[in-house]
Amino acid sequence: MVVVSIVSEDHEFDQIFRIRKEVFVIEQAVPEDEEWDEFEHISTHYIAHLNNVAVGTARWRRTLTGDYKLERFAVLISYRGLGVGEAILKTVLADVPREENRKIYLHAQLSAKGFYAKNGFVAEGEEFDEAGIRHVKMVYY
């Protein structure tokens, strides 16, 4: 069973940063200086455990426009296809405040576009490059 919780302890931050490094920096070759940003301390971070092993993470934050941006969804490669990503996404969506005239959105890697579409997101605008990977903005309705 996948258990998703908000990160609150230092050792959990170590675990999510390890997961993000494995997925983004090592697997996807995102430059390390682009992976860590100024939003780490203002974001709400999540960690997913499967059989007591930390296997996935994500975060959300309020943007300067007042909208909500979901970011840094990552599941270790050997745990993909087991429902971890969907459990993280559903937990995050349940926690993000719903406010009139405020969007909930993310920048989806094109390889994950179908996953997010299946979970209520709609592509908006043109594809773009982010950290050397093709993305599209997707909004939750």
Written overview of the protein:
Strands 1-2-3-4-5-7-6 form a 7-stranded mixed sheet, sandwiched between helices. The model has no long low-confidence stretch (mean pLDDT 96). The longest helix is centred in the first third of the chain and has 18 residues, at 10-27. It is 28% helix and 38% strand. It is α+β, with helices and mostly antiparallel strands.
Question: What tags apply to this protein structure?
Answer:
141 residues; alpha+beta; Aminopeptidase; seven-stranded mixed β-sheet; globular
Secondary-structure content class: alpha+beta
Q: How far is the first residue's CA from the last residue's CA?
A: 28 Å
Poorly predicted ranges: none
Reported CATH architecture = 3-Layer(aba) Sandwich
Please give the order of strands in the largest beta sheet.
1-2-3-4-5-7-6
Chain-averaged pLDDT: 96
Q: Oligomer, anyone?
A: single chain
**Outline:** globular
Give the topology, please.
Layout: E1 2-6, H1 10-27, H2 32-35, E2 44-50, E3 53-62, E4 68-75, H3 84-95, E5 104-109, H4 113-118, E6 121-130, E7 133-140
Parallel strand pairs: 4-5
Antiparallel strand pairs: 1-2, 2-3, 3-4, 5-7, 6-7
